[in-house]
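Kindly go through one protein, given below as sequence and tokens. The question is how this chain folds according to its tokens.

***
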Amino acid sequence: MKGNASLHNKDRSLLEVKNLETSFLIDGQLYNAVDNVSFTVKPRQIVGIVGESGCGKSVLSLSIMKLLPKDTGMIRSGEIVFDGKHLEQMEDAEINRIRGNEAAMIFQEPMTSLNPVFTIGFQLMEVLLNHMKISKKEARSKSIDLLKSVGISRPEKIVDEYPHQLSGGMRQRVMIAIAIACQPKLLIADEPTTALDVTVQAQILDLIKGIQEESNMAVILITHDLGVVAEMCDEVIVMYAGKIVEKTDVDTLFYHPKHPYTKLLMEAIPKMDQDVEVLSSIKGIVPSLKNMPKQGCRFAERCPMAMAKCKTITPILANVEDGHEVSCLLYETSKPKEGVNA
């Protein structure tokens, strides 16, 4: 674990997300998938966002990049300030100049992100030509260099191949090459090692880490794998049902977790020194958007530490120790407010 987040404290914030609410229209009603989320990312920092599927991690990343489905998704309120610019207020043409240039994203499944009818080189060149004043010849040469920089052998041949001709690991490397083509200040990696075998996962993570250290870009790493968080991240945000339930540096999270949900996530990690037949799991499932509790703690139904008041009083995210924020009624500093919707 890195635990060097303090090195970044004197830096200005590159990204500030303030009281963000992202909603989806379902059966004529709006439901919050991201609910009152606030956090910052500093230059050169790697921030991990963890939680089960359905906790709002990917929706948060799509909100930052303004890639929500236009017909059903919307940023309802809050601010997204990137390098001093308010992204939530920008029109499409304006955000397109930032997206792929100053801020980029790697998606979960590269086969659905890469266009199957265009060559790898065409898709790389498209990014370069959109954001840089260079010729097609220069863009092709730079595309080959980018493929080489992400560890793809025979880049001169791969540049003319199609996504289906590559392995999953190679496609993910291509996605990384596209994301870093314009040397962005911020890279959002949404489950970048999903569906890859363990060896390739390690290679992809090492690649992202190496690029981050070399270029000094900031990274938001979305994952459900706490082992990846321990290896890669400075700060960690734990999300549950659209809300942040815990936020601190990586060492504190692993050695002194406070929220019951975080503790249960930790207990679910297989231990090398323990021989058990059944792995620990968290009972129940994350509530759907339509079945979200109207008040109280959203984790109360699944929480082994739940008290009667947890179902009626909504905890707020508050500082319980230096830089360690938790949203839980077990900690009096949370100063819960009765009657506030979760």
In short: The CA atoms of residues 144 and 156 lie 6 Å apart. The domain at 5-248 is CATH 3.40.50.300 (Rossmann fold).
